[in-house]
Fold this sequence. Notes:
With 165 residues, the protein is α+β, with helices and mostly antiparallel strands. It folds into two domains: 1-46, no CATH class; 47-165, Orthogonal Bundle (Death Domain, Fas). The chain has helices at residues 4-15, 53-58, 62-65, 69-79, 89-95, 100-108, 113-120, 126-135, 139-155, and strands at residues 17-19, 24-31, 34-42. Strands 1-2-3 form a three-stranded antiparallel β-sheet. Helix 4 packs antiparallel against helix 9 and helix 8 packs antiparallel against helix 9. It is globular. Keywords: Cytoplasm, Developmental protein, Differentiation, Receptor. It is found in: Cytoplasm. It comes from Delphinapterus leucas (Beluga whale). It holds the Pfam family Death.
Amino acid sequence: MHSLGDRESQKERKTGFIKSCHRFRKAAILGHKEEHVIDISKDASCAENCTCSSCLLLAPTISDLLNDQDLLDVIRIKLDPCHPTVKNWRNFASKWGMPYDELCFLEQRPQSPTLEFLLRNSQRTVGQLMELCRLYHRADVEKVLRRWVDEEWPRRGRGEHPRNF
């Protein structure tokens, strides 16, 4: 007689159950020389800001949010102003390695320094940007980004498809 574990592994083999990354599972039926993907679902084993290659391929990048002008306007309004007790774009850029001379240069340009900072870090994920928000206690900016990731990003139809390089 087979144990429950044996039956489950046999079932996985029969349906062609594949684990491709510890975050995403693909249930596939193998047959007729092709693979049909049935379902993709999140595995709870990945952390929220997982940096494994599969998770990074599916995570929205700053480049993705640069296409949303309304979101950019809100972020600029929140991060452009200089205030002695509130962390802004300067702190974020410095944390991500921007040299002091470049920070000063961006302040002198007519374009938003926040936008410049985002453009120069467009390959990073929105999750990484939200980490900076948490680090600098900018819950207001994090909330805006979280809403965009949860509501706008999936609507764009990109959240479920890997990015091609």
